[in-house]
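To the wet lab folks,

You asked to see what we're planning to order before we commit. Fair enough. Below is the target structure as tokens, and below that is the sequence we designed to fit it. If anything looks off to you, flag it before the synthesis order goes out.
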């Protein structure tokens, strides 16, 4: 009898918890600025963390908490239930899709695009025919450019390889190259350090969607976050957050598709 009463009490407690509260425990690297990092007060900050704060605002009963964890332990942390959501620029792989639940829609895109100096107004790579484009050696940006040029033999473009990004940006400033291929966010960080203003082209080589990640046993939680994310996207609030962090030029990639 005592066991039955105990089970009933536990069931009621769980039911009340589900009805009146949704504990959203988020795991983030919090060492990857500007996406997820700790501010001077030790608070979880950055774009990814603010996305979760935005989504939580659509769920009145939600409580939000953040756990900082090294990147190499972020998936094991999710598996061991230290938290229930990962928001840390996570992209899809076959292995991850087999093991986890991804949000139905992406909330961000990692971009590999054409970048030049301020006021260059380059709209297409064809405008650089006969010129030089710089890339970081061994990067996915270098591969994207190499693959594109192989499939477009009519273009006479020299690829210049750099071991360090600051040197790549410095040569762009000195006009030793006409443009570079990189992620605009990373490129701007390097450019700001050298007082350089960049022009981000809408021409891109790769757009990789970024998702929220959940365990397979968190289907209910994933569904609630999917509902909130859908509303935030439709109302333009995710876009506003992208503009706040990365500028209007980057926000165009949320909807832009390759021609």
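Sequence we intend to order:
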């Amino acid at each position: 009898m005592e066991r039955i009463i105990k089970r009933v009490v536990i069931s009621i407690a769980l039911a009340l918890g589900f009805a009146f509260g949704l504990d959203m425990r988020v795991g983030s690297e919090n060492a990857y600025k500007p996406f997820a990092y700790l501010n001077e007060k030790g608070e979880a900050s950055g774009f990814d963390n603010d996305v979760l704060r935005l989504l939580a605002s659509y769920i009145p009963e939600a409580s939000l908490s953040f756990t900082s964890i090294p990147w190499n332990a972020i998936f094991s942390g999710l598996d061991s239930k230290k938290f229930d959501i990962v928001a840390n620029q996570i992209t899809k792989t076959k292995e991850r899709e087999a093991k986890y639940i991804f949000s139905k829609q992406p909330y961000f895109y990692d971009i590999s695009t054409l970048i030049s100096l301020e006021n260059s107004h380059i709209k297409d790579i064809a405008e650089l025919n006969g010129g030089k484009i710089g890339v970081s050696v061994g990067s996915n940006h270098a591969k994207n450019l190499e693959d594109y040029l192989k499939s477009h033999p009519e273009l006479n473009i020299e690829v210049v390889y750099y071991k360090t990004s600051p040197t790549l940006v410095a040569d762009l400033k000195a006009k030793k190259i006409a443009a570079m291929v990189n992620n605009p966010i990373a490129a701007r960080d390097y450019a700001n350090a050298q007082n350089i203003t960049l022009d981000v082209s809408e021409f891109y080589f790769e757009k990789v969607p970024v998702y929220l990640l959940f365990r397979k046993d968190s289907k209910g939680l994933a569904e609630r976050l999917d509902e909130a994310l859908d509303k935030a996207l439709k109302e333009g609030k995710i876009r506003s957050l992208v503009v706040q962090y990365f500028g209007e030029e980057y926000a165009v990639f949320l909807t832009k598709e390759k021609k």
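Structural context that might help your review: The first helix runs from residue 2 to 20. The chain has ten helices and twelve strands.

Thanks,
Computational group
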